[in-house]
UniProtKB/TrEMBL annotation:
UniProt organism field: Paucilactobacillus wasatchensis
Assigned protein family: Belongs to the tetrahydrofolate dehydrogenase/cyclohydrolase family.
Domain (Tetrahydrofolate dehydrogenase/cyclohydrolase NAD(P)-binding): residue spans on this chain: 140-280
The protein's Enzyme Commission number: 1.5.1.5, 3.5.4.9
One Gene Ontology CC term in the entry: cytosol
Name of this chain's protein: Bifunctional protein FolD
Annotated Tetrahydrofolate dehydrogenase/cyclohydrolase catalytic domain residues: 5-119
Length: 286
């Protein structure tokens, strides 16, 4: 029997813990705050940022959304980040990807103070993750949420082979580091990878984050593998689909995340959880 991983249920469990943490901080006169910067008017990005805002408010946090037109200059965004960096009511800053061409994502990423970098994109935070440093620092929410899934479902990690398809700073690279830090053997594939199916078929844990709808078919997976589908795409009828052909793959593998209702809800729940963590760490570090 294939386990269909219930991301919504797990997200609710995390949100409940977050609500309790927020209440505790409230007793100390502290309210966690998150700021989201959205550039342009892509409808999907708008919807996600609105969802994040609503969730933050529901959990009792401060949430502000700063929107800018798609032709905004890089300097305007940098000035906004500077203001948020020194705003004591804001503990977490997220700049929604993708950014328009005139803005250099690397410059933006490095401008966010590492202690408010809720996406874990800042080179200092990424470096600490890759070095497997002890201590408190933020990690990209989607990979961190996937680790929560793997642990909740008691997926064996040590010595297992994970194949990650996709190598972005948002998902693939931090995912690889998190798994390496847990003694998993990791292979990372991208669009140049030869014989993708023969590679993914070797995976005990297969994590796919490409944005190519239904890239992974039944012949790409090993029986009993654990399949984590990060991708968000739409089919010809506008229906939301993942990177994995769910109906074809689900009967072959041991466990699988659906889209929707898998990784997505965990990303949002982890974002909120990490906003609270950043708030607590800022109290410790002053
Ligand atoms: N559910 C959730 O919570 C989240 C979902 N997403 C979704 O996940 C997907 C990926 O996001 P993100 O990482 O930001 O995307 P990017 O576009 O930044 O990266 C996509 C990656 O996929 C690789 N890729 C593309 N096509 C292929 C292919 N045919 N075979 C193998 N590899 C391929 C690319 O390889 P190369 O580098 O070689 O070009 C690249 O590394 C998107 O659909 C996004 O919407 C993202 C974040 C959170
Ligand atoms: N700086 C930055 N950080 C991000 O984490 C980030 C980003 N930029 N840009 C875009 C991607 C995409 N992303 C998603 C989050 C939640 C769902 C989600 O909740 N999905 C629901 C479905 C929602 C629907 O119905 O469309 C689900 O899968 O169940 C999806 C995608 C975060 N991203």
């Amino acid at each position: 029997m294939t386990t269909i991983i219930d991301g919504k249920k797990l997200a609710q469990k995390i949100n409940l813990q977050t609500t309790k943490e927020v209440a505790k901080l409230k007793g100390q006169g502290i309210k966690p705050g998150i700021a989201v910067i959205l550039v342009g008017d892509d409808p999907a990005s708008k919807m996600y940022t609105r969802n994040k805002q609503r969730k933050a408010e529901k959990l009792g946090m401060n949430s502000i959304l700063k929107t800018f037109p798609s032709d905004v200059s890089q300097q305007v965004i940098l000035d906004e980040i500077k203001a948020l960096n020194s705003d004591d009511t804001i503990n977490a800053i997220l700049v929604q990807a993708p950014l328009p061409q005139q803005i250099d994502a690397d410059v933006i990423t490095s401008a966010i103070v590492p202690s408010k970098d809720v996406d874990g994109f800042h080179p200092q935070n990424l470096g600490r993750l890759y070095a497997n440093q002890a201590g408190n620092y933020p990690v990209a929410c989607t990979p961190k949420g996937i680790m929560t899934i793997l642990k909740e479902y008691h997926v064996p990690l040590v010595g297992q082979h994970a194949v990650i398809v996709g190598r972005s700073i948002l998902v693939g690279k931090p995912m690889a580091a998190l798994l390496l830090n847990e003694d998993v053997t990791v292979t990372v594939a991208g669009h140049h990878t030869k014989n993708l199916a023969s590679l993914t078929k070797q995976a005990d844990i297969l994590i796919v984050a490409t944005g190519v709808g239904h890239l992974i078919k039944a012949e790409f997976v090993k029986p009993d593998a654990v399949v984590i589908d990060v991708g968000i795409d739409h089919d010809d009828n506008g229906k939301l689909i993942g990177d994995v052909d769910f109906d074809a793959v689900k009967d072959v593998v041991g466990a699988i995340t659906p889209v929707p209702g898998g990784v997505g809800p965990l990303t949002i729940a982890t974002l909120m959880q990490q906003t609270v963590e950043l708030t607590k760490w800022s109290q410790i570090n002053g």
